[in-house]
Design a protein that fits this description.
The chain is mostly helical. The chain is 68% helix and 3% strand. The protein has eleven helices and three strands. A three-stranded antiparallel sheet has the order 1-2-3.
Length: 377
Amino acid sequence: MGVKPAIGRKSNKSPPIFSHEFVIQNHADIVSCVVMVFLVGLMVQSTSPIASLFISLHHNVSGVEPTRENPKGEPFSYEAGWKDSCAVFFYSLVCIVMHAILQEYFLDKISKKFHLSKSRLSSLNESGQLVVFHLVTLLWGGDAILREGFAFNISQLWDGYPNHPMSFLLKLWWIVQAAYWIHTLPELYFQRIKKDEWAGRIRQALIAFTFVALAYGFKFQRVGVSLVVLHSLAEFVSHAYRLNVILRGEREDFIEKFGRLVNGSVFVLVRLASLVLGVLTFYFGLAGAAPLLLRVGALSLLVSFQVYLMFNFISEAMKQRQESRQLALNRPKKEKKDKPKKEKVKKAPVEESDLPEVDQNTNKTLRQRQAAAAKAK
């Protein structure tokens, strides 16, 4: 028999305020209140300059506000600066709130529907967040590339370097990229991620943030957005394939084989396209415009990263193939059960005789009578 709780005592009481459990359960509401403080401060005249430092984009180099003579004005263009760190901090708070919304209203409901194990649940939460982020990165960055004309005139990636001003949407895209990878560090605590998974996720976040910071700081924003969009394409396909495996299980059917083929093909093509784009930009395009040490360092870093990703992909593919072979060998073979054959009643051989047919029938009748008389006794 189970022990019933005492009368008047709640079995699920809320944790004390400012405790670890309270912060984890209500971190989205707490961060939302902090975001609201910045937004309210933007509307107050005395605190507006400080709040705008975190919310607005700064370091504009061109652009005109709309006037009566020029109602449309001129679009603003921006460059990188130290005030961008304040914007990265603010938008990292926004990323925490969006992360919690996606987790509560989508991923948690999916996990309850499929009744996943703890390991699969952790993989679902990670891939579910990343597939949305890489999809947004792909669509937003691809739109910026088309608007700026980089796709149709690839020489714009290096022409005029280092004078590469950014549009509003392109600069905001870079700010959000940096903010997202920063917000993943406190999410390890908020989402109760196992400590044995911390090392891999911290390494992934630091590598991504370092690439974004270097490309943004050294004014490689044009080639950087192209490389990040290519990388996001491969990551989106990879995590979509991973979600398919998590939700459907490891099934050897057409969908699984097709997803594996698409994942591998896109991954290899993206690595090759990234290498070609990097060599064209850093080795040929920026020759004479950027210092040799900077070009060699950027190209070496890009090539090393692509080789590292390719090596990990090949190693993982070989490991999965060996595991599948081992499972196939260890799987007990189904023995074919032979159906019991009906035994044919063998008829007694008929003795051939030289007597005529009438006499043979007479002898047969006599034998049957003798057998019946023996049974009667």
